[in-house]
Every structure is written in C-alpha cells, then in structure tokens.
Amino acid sequence: MSSSKEVLFTSIRDDNDDPGGMLHPGRSQIQLFFPLTKQSWGILYFSLREEKSRRRIFKRKKPKKEKKKDGKQQPPTNTQSTFRSSPSSAQSTTSQQTPPPAQLRDPAAAPGSRRGGAAAAAMALHHRARLRSRAAPLLAAVVLAVLALVSLLRASHGGAGPAPPAAAAASERAAARNRTAAQRKILLDPSFTPRLPRQGALSLSLAARNALPPRNAGRFPGLPDGHLKIVLYVHNRPRYLRLVVDSLSRVDGIGEALLVVSHDGYFPEMDEIVKGIAFCQVKQIFAPYSPHLFPDSFPGVAPGDCRDKDRAAEKRCRGEPDQYGNHRSPRIVSLKHHWWWMMNTVWDGLEETRDFDGHILFIEEDHYIFPNAYRNAQLLVDLKPKKCPQCYAVNLAPSDVKAKGEGWESMVAEKMGNIGYAFNRTVWRKIHAKAKQFCDFDEYNWDITMWATVYPSFEAPVYSLRGPRRSAAHFGKCGLHQGQDSSNVCVDNGAGAIELDAIDKVPNIKADWPVHIIRKQPGYQAGFKGWGGWGDRRDRELCLSFAYMYHVKDTSSA
Predict the structure, then answer these.
(1) pLDDT digits over 66-106, tens only?
(2) For the chain, how many helices (H) and strands (E)?
(3) Could you tell me what percentage of the chain is helix, strand and coil, using 3-state DSSP and rounding each to the nearest 5?
(4) Same domain, residue pair 288 and 358
(5) What is the structure's pLDDT at 74?
(6) N or C end of the chain: smaller count of CB under 10 Å?
(7) Quick one: 156 and 201 in the same domain?
(8) Rounded CA gap, 203 and 299, in Å?
(9) Is the pLDDT confidence value at 48 over 80?
(10) Is the pTM of this model over 0.70?
(11) Which residue, among 397, 172, 352, 173, has the nearest Cα to 257 in the 3D structure?
C-alpha cells in the first residue's frame, strides 16, 4: 500500500511548488497539512484500483486483424470482445462499461449499417472507459485537497471540529506535561506540618460529592477555546441565590462556561437551587472543613473554648483572643476559611480546573450579573496584555461597590475590586506564595486581608482592568455571616431590583479605547491593622494547612 501511495502522490505533485527542494521528493504538500483519515485511505485505495485496471486494459497488445477474404477486411464477429479485460480486472471495469448501441443489439438492423455502427459504438465505449479511468485519480486528488483545506481552516480557528479521542487524550497529556513555570513553582515551608480536622460522616460525604463530574455536560458537551470558568461562592441566603441564578441564566454566552458553585456548609435549600441550573455545565463543591459542619469540635464550637472576651487564665478555657480581646466566632471566621479553601481547591485541587491556565471569574451570591458580563469579561481578558500589561486582573464593576461607573469612552485601571474579579494562574501563584501573610493577619474578611497585607507585598500597584460601566452590581444588605440562626435572621429579600439600560445588555467595551489609570484611591491599604476576629492560633494553622493540602501527600488529622 505504501508504494501505491507514493505513486499517487508523485502523480499529483508539482515540482514548481517546491523550488527550494524543502519537501521530500515524491511526497505531496498535502502530507504536511493533515493525517490521512480512514475515508481518505478508502478514496486512495479505490482510485489506485481504477488506475491499475486502466493500465491493464489499455497497455495490453492490440488484437490481430483477421485475414482478408475476397480482398476485403472482415469486421470482428463480436465487437465487445475487443474491449473485454482479463478476469482479474473484470470486476473493477464491468460496472463502468456502457451497453452497446441499439443497432448492435437489434438483430433486424440493416446489414449495410452494421459495420459502421459497431465501429462507432466501440470508439465511444473506448473513450468513455478511458475518461472514467483517468477521472478517478483526479477526483481522489481533489477530495484530498478539500480535506486538507478543511483541516487548515479548523486549525486556524482553534480546532472548531471535534478531535479524535486518541488525539484529544494526547493533547490533554501534553498540556499536563507542559505546565508553566508558575504552575510548578510552589513555595512551601518545610518546617510546617499541615493538620486538618478529623472529618465526620457529613464532611466525608460532601468531600465525595466534590469528585463528581459536572452536570449538564451532555447538553453542553464542549467548552470552546477562550472560555472563562466562573466560580460562585455561596453560604445560606437562598433568596439571594435565586436572583443570582436568574441573572446568570440571561447572560449572553453563559452556555460556553463551566460554573463551579462553592458551598460554605451544607444547606438543603441552597443545594436544590443549584441542582435546578440547566443553562450551562455546573459543578458543586462543598467546603468539607467548614465550621458549620462541626457543631461540637473545631473548627466549630468545641467544648472548653473561650468565648467573647473570656480570660483564658480565669475561665481555664482554650483559645487566643484577637487584638481587641475577642475570641473566635465560628460563623465569622468561616468567611475567610471558605474563600481560602475555595481558591486552593479551584486552582490546585479540582480535576476540571487544576490544569487550567486561563482566567477564572469569581462572583458571590449577592452579585447581580448583567447580560453583557461574560462577553465584556472576555474582551477585557483579551485586551489586558496590550492595553494594561501591568494589570493583574479584570473586574466587572468599580472597586467602590456603590458606583455605577464613569461612562467614559475609555477603560479604567484601578485597584482590584471584590465584585466580579478574574485572574489567571500566574497571579494565583503570587497570591499562594503569600499564604503566611494571609493566614497570620488579624482580619476575618478575606478581601480586606488582601488589600491590607497581600497586595502591598507585591511591591507594585495591583491594578485591575474594567470598563467604564459596571457589568455586575452588589445588591445584598445581609452579610455572609448573617441569617444563620433563629435569634439573628437577616430578612432582606433582595427585592431591590437592578435597573438595566439597553447598553447593559450588549458588549459595551471597544478595543480602540485608551486606558485611564486611577493611581490613588481611598479604602483599605497597607498599614491597616485589621478588624480582628482572627486571633486564634488554630484558625491560622488551619488556614495555612489549606495552602499545603494539595501539595503534601500526607496531612495529619487533629
């Protein structure tokens, strides 16, 4: 078969296309563009059969002429016998032979016209067989050229067509091997031994659910190149969550994304709302070490723990107070624990995201997402390397949660906000390297911790690129730690609907806009000492253990 392939390629090769002799002799340029599929080999095979049949038919010796009788040449007794091929080639040529003309089949035809009609029919049959046998290799070359063109177009558009399973698996293995230096560079303290709480039945069952594949994968089978992954982190505000899910269902392009919903604790109503999502791929993860899953032990309330402003020496209780003399409150420290566990799990733990180098968009359950949010986020991600190479992230809204945007005809670079923020793995590695600073800072809010201690340690302004109009809005009035018990229930129903203009429903960022940099802004900065709530040594150790749990094989259980 290899020799036949070489013959065909030689026949369709044009040496003028390779003036420098850069291609191998006897091979077509088509070979460089795409692999021959089963269909291509089939076309090639049958074309070669036609070629061989043609050569056997027309290269054999001509039939001897019959002797003349009475001084005249006699016509052949059987016109069809002149073009009968050998038995080995009959099967490939029979279906292409044309029946003889009517006068050859009609016994009543006039004798005088019989000789001329037979000759004409023979000549016509000869030309038809000749044309058909020559057309087959040409047709095969055309089909192969079309396949090559389609392959090139697919490659130039990022692989629009589905790849064969073997090729897809090889591509995934190559992506895993070719991780960036930022992915491999993990800074760990060898003197620290991570310790995670001993899990109960509920914690173990939720951890098992974290390994389940995304739902709706059959309805949305492929995530295109350039897509964003979205992480929605929630606690226990079902009214808020319904509004957020409804807003996400109206977002243009949401079907291209993977939505990861991270739960702080387990609440059946919240679980059911997420299970009802049908507009994209969705994966649920549950923080298995959430204080809400440990009612009688750390990180929940453990017997013998100090509370409020207890003095440990007098009460003989356990725990270290914060800088204001207050002992830990599990429902408050859960804010920072959940965010830090989620970040480490999404970037380094989940199978669906741990090899993903692109931008991941993070939103909360009290963020209303506009219809143009996804497309605007994609535009900002694409423009950031050229328009704002010093920017670390992109944002869907101003850092001032009450602001709607300036409405300028320019993009804005300012300090990173906490509403709809997205960054890539390189930025995550810089954040992860500051785990010690993050976990030791006496502040129970993750965002204030980042502004006051982590970002300033980067030794350069941490700018985020956004549009002049917001694409997400903060609508909640209840804090994340409210609404957890019957004595202190947050009753805000999120009825304050967000009004959208027509421009908020379509992408409204232009690539030719300049970037306006806001260099000085009010808010939390380096030097702020924190609001406290994070003074207990156990919380700091658990926080640091989350940074190690996917990079250390064995972790001890407290």
Answers:
(1) 444 444 444 444 433 333 333 333 343 333 444 444 443 44
(2) 18, 13
(3) 40, 10, 45
(4) yes
(5) 43
(6) N
(7) no
(8) 12
(9) no
(10) no
(11) 352
The single residue listed with the structure tokens 């997402």 is 369
- Burial tier of 162 (Cβ tally within 10 Å: 0-12, 13-18, 19+): exposed
E strand spans, 351-400:
360-364, 367-369, 391-395
Dihedral in degrees, nearest 10, Cα atoms 129, 132, 138, 141: -120
Are both 92 and 217 inside the same structural domain? no
**Lowest-pLDDT choice from 136-145, 247-256, 441-450:** 136-145
Which residue blocks in 73-232 are alpha helix, DSSP H? 87-94, 102-105, 111-156, 165-177, 181-184, 201-209
Tell me if residue 100 falls in helix, strand or coil: coil
Distance CA 371, CA 469 (A): 13
Helix axes 38-58, 111-156, angle to 10 degrees: 150
15 lies in some domain: yes
Helix 38-58 vs helix 2-12: crossing angle, to nearest 10: 80
Q: How far apart are CA 416 and CA 411, in angstroms?
A: 14
> Quick check: 341 and 450 in contact, CB under 8 A?
no
Same domain, 142 and 223: no
Omega before 522 cis (within 30°)?
A: no
Q: Are residues 15 and 112 in the same domain?
A: yes
End-of-domain residue from the set 125, 149, 166: 166
- Pair 241, 270: CB distance under 8 Å: yes
> Which residue is associated with the tokens 């906490």?
418
Whichever domain contains 436, its CATH number is 3.90.550.10
**At 472, is the secondary structure helix, strand, or coil?**
strand
State whether 41 and 148 are in the same domain: yes
Chain position carrying tokens 């095969």 = 140
Q: Does residue 32 sit within a domain? A: yes
Number of independent structural domains in the chain: 2
Write the single-letter amino acid at 280. Answer: C
**Residue 227 covered by a domain:** yes
Burial (CB count within 10 angstroms: exposed 0-12, middle 13-18, buried 19+), residue 77: exposed
Pick from 534, 549, 435: nearest CA to 193: 549
**Are both 295 and 231 inside the same structural domain?**
yes
Contacts of 373 (CB under 8 A, 6+ apart): 251, 396, 420, 471, 472
Reported as a single tens digit per residue, the pLDDT across 388-416 is 999 999 999 999 998 999 999 999 999 99
Last residue of a domain, one of 112, 145, 166: 166
Say how far apart CA 168 and CA 535 lie, in whole Å: 49
pLDDT per position as a tens digit, 355-375: 999 999 999 999 999 999 999
Q: Which of 242, 334, 328 is nearest to 287 (CA)?
A: 334
Length of the chain: 558
**Residue 131 and residue 225 share a domain:** no
31/53 Cα distance (integer angstroms): 26
Is 513 inside a domain boundary? yes
What is the phi/psi pair of residue 282, to 5°? Answer: -140, 135
Q: Which domain holds residue 420?
A: 195-557
